[in-house]
Design a protein that fits this description.
The chain is α/β, with parallel strands linked by helices and about 475 residues long. The chain has 17 helices and 15 strands. The chain has 3 domains: about 110 residues, no CATH class; about 240 residues, no CATH class; about 70 residues, no CATH class. Strand 9 and strand 10 form a beta hairpin.
């Protein structure tokens, strides 16, 4: 099959469950043949160019269903809308407007660059291929560095570095373990500004290089940034130079042809919990400098965001079919974008696919296990079991056990949690027995998942058991 396929048709072609022998794998758009080609979804929008330009939705509901959602079933990479419907002329004979597709040149250019970059990634020599691994940081505190949901992101990152080196990538002096990686990150500038001035690690982007990239942005984009954050020289990550024009300090560690970066915050001197998903807050200069350096100075072939989730896909702009004034595109550009993402949250993964051309690689949830009983609950469970064993045999023993059980539930606060009323002791004991069983059987996390590693031993057994167990009652 071809290396690259650009698909401009609507709907899905394949099915994740199709039978290769019945449907055939010769169609390069269908699974599993598509796994050998990089397939891009190119949107020919049924809406007008004016509606696309003026609205934040990007596409109509029909276009999203036909040209975005259904093609995702085939695993296609969503690119951009490259044309829109418009009226060519009014036909006097039929008294009808004749519709035609009108191409949008800058969107075609973006798609061509995106496709070209994927082809370059595929054809490049492994030893010369450059990759950026980006770690999330929410909220913007050093205690929350590399905090992918359900993912041991530091351990996953060091493991990926090892895998890349073993695969032939040029990885120089990588950290030995996750602790070493975190110490290296914290030695440089992070999003926590309190002691930033005392840190000297990371990389620097010269102010002159930043001005070149920044100057190429549309005027209205630069106006929005400077209205909110001021001139580039006012950014807290900017340092003026005694001789040159100064530089931006960036939280990026370089290990040969692979870098590990800490994704910048969406702003400073603000509440990150209220702004992480803000649809209006434009990113500051240091945020753009971070991605500009990766793309233009380092020359990365691909950007990998490690774990759910970063803030790139939540930057201001259209919901889908982005333009050159949408900030996710301004930051990441037409770069191959790979995103390990927890498998049980496809909704937020979709945000990255549709707004940042991400290829989602699902990873397992953390290992699951049973909560089991411990402490007072284990003691209560033993007393309740003893109570029912004594029922009908020793009435005096029953009364003693009942008092002990109800007293212990009151002292530990479990009486309220279990919904005991106190008016019906036999009913309360039945409720308590059911409550203790439910707690004991509850599924809980047992650590975090490490990307690229499957759980083993007891963790594997408990996870498989949790996945295949039959739901009871209200689905627990």
């Amino acid at each position: 099959p071809p290396e690259i396929i650009l698909n401009c048709t609507s709907f899905a072609v394949g099915s994740p469950h199709q039978d290769e022998h019945r449907t055939g794998a010769s169609n390069p758009l269908s699974m599993p043949a598509a796994n050998r080609s990089t397939v891009f979804q190119v949107v020919l929008a049924a809406s007008s160019e004016e509606a696309w330009e003026d609205g934040l939705g990007g596409l109509s509901g029909r276009d999203i269903a036909m040209n975005v959602a259904l093609p995702e079933v085939d695993g296609r990479i969503l690119s951009r809308a490259i044309s829109f419907k418009g009226e060519a002329y009014f036909d006097e004979a039929t008294q009808c407007p004749i519709a035609t597709y009108k191409a949008r040149g800058d969107r075609i250019t973006f798609v061509a660059e995106l496709v070209s970059n994927w082809a370059k990634l595929r054809r490049s020599d492994t030893g010369k291929r450059k990759v950026a691994l980006i770690l999330a940081n929410y909220p913007n505190k050093d205690g929350r560095l590399a905090n992918g949901v359900g993912l041991d992101t530091p351990a996953s990152t060091t493991h990926v570095l090892k895998l890349l080196r073993d695969a032939g990538y040029s990885v120089s002096n990588p950290p030995n373990n996750s602790d070493d990686l975190m110490q290296m990150i914290m030695a440089g500038p992070t999003n926590w500004l309190t002691d930033r001035a005392q840190k000297s690690g990371g990389v620097q982007m010269s102010f002159a290089d930043y001005q070149i990239s920044y100057g190429q942005l549309p005027w209205e984009v630069r106006e929005k940034i400077e209205d909110r954050w001021g001139k580039p020289e006012q950014d807290p990550f900017y340092t003026s130079g005694a001789v040159d024009c100064g530089y931006f300090s960036l939280s990026i560690l370089q290990f040969g042809n692979v870098v590990v970066g800490l994704q910048p915050a969406r702003g400073y001197n603000i509440d990150p919990t209220e702004t992480y998903h803000s649809p209006d807050l434009v990113p500051p200069h240091n945020y753009l400098a971070f991605y500009f350096w990766l793309r233009h100075q380092f020359g990365t072939h691909a950007i990998v965001h490690m774990g759910k989730h970063g803030n790139l896909e939540w930057l201001p702009g259209k919901a889908v079919a982005l333009s050159d004034t949408c900030f996710p595109e301004i930051a990441i550009g037409p770069m191959p974008h790979i995103y390990p993402f927890i498998v049980n949250d496809p909704g937020e993964g979709t945000q990255a696919k549709r707004r940042a051309q991400a290829v989602i690689i699902d990873h397992l949830t953390p290992p699951l296990t049973r909560a089991e009983s411990y402490g007072p609950m284990k003691e209560l469970e033993a007393l309740v079991d003893e109570y029912y064993e004594a029922a009908g045999v020793d009435p005096r023993r029953i009364e003693y056990l009942r008092r002990e059980i109800l007293s212990l539930t009151s002292v530990t606060g479990l009486a309220e949690d279990a919904g005991l009323t106190g008016s019906d002791q036999d009913g309360d004991l039945a409720k308590l027995d059911a409550y203790l069983c439910e707690l004991k059987e509850a599924q809980i996390r047992d650590g975090l998942h490490i990307f690229g590693q499957s759980p083993t031993g007891d963790l594997q057994r408990d996870l498989v058991q949790a996945l295949v167990r039959i739901p009871r009652g209200d689905g627990k």
